[in-house]
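Key result, reporting period 2: structure in, sequence out.
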């Protein structure tokens, strides 16, 4: 990290105006604190009159799906050109979404796969693809999620919530589709504070402003916690929930739709969400060797240019490196807190993994055979377990090289447990400047140590010096991760092992 690095906030200030002018037709966030990961302005709800046939058929899709008439309607739709002379730039984002969803509807509405798309879709879709500088016609995460919502009430204080959103372009038109897609829109919208905080955090690191960096990390922590505990939970398998998403209905009507219709195209899977890419770069994900890691790197090549520009700028400043070199205990604790809120079992990725497992298990049991991300298999293959394993590997990659999740706090002097006081002794731990944020329900573990007298007596009984090296089994290796200074060790001097081991009574494991 050098003073020549460009923080994302600087990139935004210098490029926002030109990007808005040059790429106004795909101004989909990353350009200001106000818009975050959703469009700076609500998506257009209609094409110009010259292209209203697209709107009319798109609005009829739920009915056409029910009557199995999608292909007949699209076969008879007129060819409407989408070149520069026929369609203004401001309509390109909506055109891309409409045409991609019509194309997938044409293919997915019946079991038999058609040989080709009708010219009424294929020709204008190719024009829009060229003008948006996309590598090929495909249904992007932008088309399906980012640019596929409308507000019910724009005057609400916090309007970007599932309860206040409708899909611009529904296909089957059920609640499973609406909630599943719009929950992702809510997540993107609710992350806007975190995205702004990332740019300010990197500026703070460049300026060596530790206090400001701590504040921005806490803002990121709060947003990720909210997304995991509030927004993500709106995809609910509970029939009593107001946002119930029936796993079977979802698997049969929603899940198959977005699987790429061209095997060479990227799919709008969860891995395509820009939020994962931003968080990985901000927290300094050290590796992408897993299957999903490779997929993420591939998907970045399909993003709009100003998205990749922002991601590139974000990757120039290593917050993780700055925190590790700072020697500031509070900063290191807060950074680990924010990282855990993203990548731990209780964080965003852990919540995502549990949700994916439940819905995919049911989906494959009722006949799904392929996911948007390309995982394939039949019920007997238990493909959901394979996907879960890949998610676990991908999550572990984010935590590689990170400090342990345990924060060490020592008892205040003179406030140690005393058996003479009875069975219960109040103990106060010193966690000042540790960066710890506790809430009701959080766990506080105790890591006891035997005193030197007891260790010396044990060594005498063993006729040992205490310097003998003892290889650790997997139980000890796991437990030792929580002992500051001993993380990752495979053996211990006998004196240290006796200090940490339970000696009264001595168990066979010890």
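The corresponding designed sequence is given below.
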């Amino acid at each position: 990290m050098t003073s020549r690095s460009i923080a994302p906030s600087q990139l935004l200030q210098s490029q926002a105006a030109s990007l808005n002018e040059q790429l106004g037709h795909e101004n989909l966030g990353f350009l200001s604190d106000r818009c975050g990961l959703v469009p700076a302005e609500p998506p257009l709800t209609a094409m110009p009159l010259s292209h209203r046939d697209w709107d009319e058929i798109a609005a009829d899709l739920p009915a056409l799906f029910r009557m199995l008439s999608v292909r007949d309607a699209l076969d008879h739709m007129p060819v409407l050109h989408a070149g520069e002379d026929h369609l203004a730039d401001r309509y390109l984002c909506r055109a891309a979404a409409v045409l991609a969803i019509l194309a997938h509807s044409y293919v997915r509405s019946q079991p038999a796969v058609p040989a080709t798309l009708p010219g009424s879709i294929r020709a204008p879709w190719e024009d829009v693809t060229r003008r948006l500088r996309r590598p090929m016609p495909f249904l992007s995460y932008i088309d399906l999620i980012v640019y596929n919502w409308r507000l019910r009430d724009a005057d609400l204080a916090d309007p970007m919530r599932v309860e206040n959103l409708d899909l611009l372009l529904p296909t089957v038109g059920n609640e499973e589709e609406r909630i599943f897609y719009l929950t992702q829109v809510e997540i993107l919208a609710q992350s806007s504070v975190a995205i702004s905080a990332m740019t300010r955090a990197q500026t703070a690191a460049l300026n060596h402003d530790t206090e400001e960096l701590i504040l921005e990390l806490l803002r990121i922590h709060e947003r990720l916690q909210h997304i995991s505990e509030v927004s993500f939970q709106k995809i609910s398998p509970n029939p009593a929930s107001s946002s119930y998403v029936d796993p079977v209905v979802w698997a049969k009507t929603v899940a198959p739709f977005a699987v790429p219709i061209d095997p060479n195209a990227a799919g709008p899977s969860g891995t395509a969400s820009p939020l994962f890419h931003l968080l990985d770069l901000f927290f300094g994900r050290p590796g992408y060797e897993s299957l999903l890691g490779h997929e993420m790197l591939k998907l970045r090549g399909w993003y709009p240019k100003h998205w990749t520009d922002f991601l590139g700028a974000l990757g120039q400043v290593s917050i993780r490196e700055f925190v590790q070199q700072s020697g500031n205990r509070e900063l290191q604790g807060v950074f680990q807190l924010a990282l855990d809120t993203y990548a731990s079992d209780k964080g965003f990725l852990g919540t995502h993994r549990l949700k994916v497992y439940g819905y995919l298990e049911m989906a494959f049991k009722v006949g799904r055979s392929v996911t948007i991300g390309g995982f394939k298999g039949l019920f007997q293959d238990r493909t959901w377990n394979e996907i879960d394993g890949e998610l676990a590997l991908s999550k572990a990659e984010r935590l590689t090289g990170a400090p342990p999740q345990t924060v060490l706090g020592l008892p205040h002097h003179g406030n140690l447990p005393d058996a003479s006081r009875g069975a219960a002794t109040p103990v106060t731990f010193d966690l000042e400047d540790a960066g710890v944020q506790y809430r009701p329900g959080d766990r506080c573990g105790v890591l006891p140590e035997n005193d030197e007298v007891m260790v010396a007596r044990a060594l005498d009984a063993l006729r040992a010096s205490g310097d003998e090296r003892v290889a650790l089994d997997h139980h000890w290796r796991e437990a030792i991760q929580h002992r500051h200074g001993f993380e990752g060790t495979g053996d211990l001097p006998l004196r240290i092992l006796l200090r940490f081991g339970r000696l009264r009574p001595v168990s066979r494991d010890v």
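Confidence is low (pLDDT under 50) at residues 1-9, 11-35. The first helix runs from residue 8 to 22. This case is discussed further under Risks and Mitigation.
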